[in-house]
Amino acid sequence: FTKHLIFYILPLVTFCYGSSVSLPDQCSNYMVLDDATRNIDSDPDFLCDVPNDPNSASDWKGEGWYRMLPPAGTMLPQFSPGGYHCGTLATGWLKGEHPESPGQTVNMTVCFEWVDSDCQDVTTINVSNCENFFVYELPNVPGCADRYCAK
What we know:
By secondary structure, the protein is mainly beta. The chain has one helix at residues 2-17, and strands at residues 31-33, 64-68, 90-95, 105-114, 117-129, 134-138, 146-148.
């Protein structure tokens, strides 16, 4: 009887409490990008993600792991929002899909749209799925007309 009871209870416990997913350190140790002008619906300006530049965005602290939060948005867009949005001229967007599995970290490309190209400038980043949100290991942008967007 006990053997059969465990057979039925164990799946129920796993279902109710979920399985334990090991999340990487960056899921609890990150900086925040939350400036409202970073949103894809914001008008252009000349802000950029370069430290110590007169046009540096107020929420940009230099290279490192970042989480996007409102009012900016919650993630990098997976499409080009078009140039001249996000409080900048060259808008940064994620080329590809965010990682699907919690705890997964993948290397991806960010394109910056400007003038006649949706991928005028390019940089490589790491993206981690932290179960309920994403974090991004962002370098300084390639040029000071470039800025990471949020949606």
